[in-house]
Amino acid sequence: MFFSNDMSPQMKGRAQMLGMLLLAGLVLSSFAFAISYAVDAWDTAANRVAPRQFSVTGEGKVAVKPDLAVVTAGVVTQAAKIGETQADNAKKSNAVLAFIKQQGVQEKDIKTIGYTISPRYEYYNSPPCVSFPCPPQRPPEITGYEVRHTMEIKIRDFTKTDAILDGVVAAGANEVGSVSFTVDDPEKPRADARAEAIANAEEKARVLARSLGVRLGRATGFFENGGGYPMPMYAIDGKGGGFGGAMEAPSRAPEIAPGQQEIQSLVTITYEFR
């Protein structure tokens, strides 16, 4: 606050007192506003009612018969030169593919899932070094190449599974993997399992509401556990001949039994109650 030099000491004193009173008033007003805001906030929080709700879980299961058999067949060949083993592998692979198609398997159900060319090495065991400096070690030498062609076959007609397993070996496949059974389109049975799980949860919620003496309200939350898809079921173990050798065809193929698979859904639903 500025004072004029012409003001008397008495006037200056009164002006200073007035300024101090105004400043004190501003401070008290600010403090009172802060207290009022804090009280209102505390009152609002104290009177806020927690949501009245509970959660229940429901489970649904659907048994489904597999409609797809999946098997892997591989052709492994070896030769001193890349071109030779590739040609040999192509010839045998084409024979396997031709046989599979003759069995009525559609082209869309046959795919290559692996094709590799790997060198074959011969390693030399050098005598242990007993004095320094040690003589140079003889590096391994490439003696040939291996070509591995692996195919995945989907079989929809289970009556042909045995014949296909036998036939691919006779046609030139020397690695046959396990046969697995699965569902081609699991979405519908999965939706059926989910609907059953939801109905199960709703029934649990109604029973719980009656036990608590409250009225069941609307659903406010939903969660479905992961999974729900059928796991492949393996029927037999195939054994590869390895090293490009012929795999001996079994005298009688094992009986294939796809059985049934279970698709499960587990849900959690949150409900309001009054």
What does this protein structure show overall?
Helix 2 packs antiparallel against helix 3. 35% of the residues lie in helices and 30% in strands. By secondary structure, it is α+β, with helices and mostly antiparallel strands. The chain is flat, with a radius of gyration of 40 Å. It has four helices and nine strands; from the N terminus they run αββαββαββαβββ. The chain has a domain of 137 residues: Protein of unknown function (DUF541), domain 2 (Alpha-Beta Plaits, 2-Layer Sandwich), CATH 3.30.70. The two termini are 64 Å apart. About 4% of the residues have low confidence.
**What is the annotated CATH architecture of the domain at 66-124 and 132-183 and 231-256?**
2-Layer Sandwich
Distance between the termini: 64 Å
Overall pLDDT confidence: 82
The CATH topology of the domain at 66-124 and 132-183 and 231-256, please? Alpha-Beta Plaits
Hey, roughly how much beta strand do the residues contain?
25-35%
Q: Please tally the β strands and state the result.
A: 9
The CATH superfamily of the domain at 66-124 and 132-183 and 231-256 bears the name Protein of unknown function (DUF541), domain 2
Largest sheet: 6 strands, antiparallel
* Highest-level CATH class of the domain at 66-124 and 132-183 and 231-256: Alpha Beta
Instruction: List low-confidence stretches.
Output: 236-245
Counting H and I runs of at least 4 residues, what is the number of helices? 4
Shape: flat
Organism: Candidatus Sungbacteria bacterium RIFCSPLOWO2_01_FULL_54_21
Protein name: DUF541 domain-containing protein
Pfam families: SIMPL
InterPro entries: 26kDa_periplasmic_antigen, SIMPL/DUF541
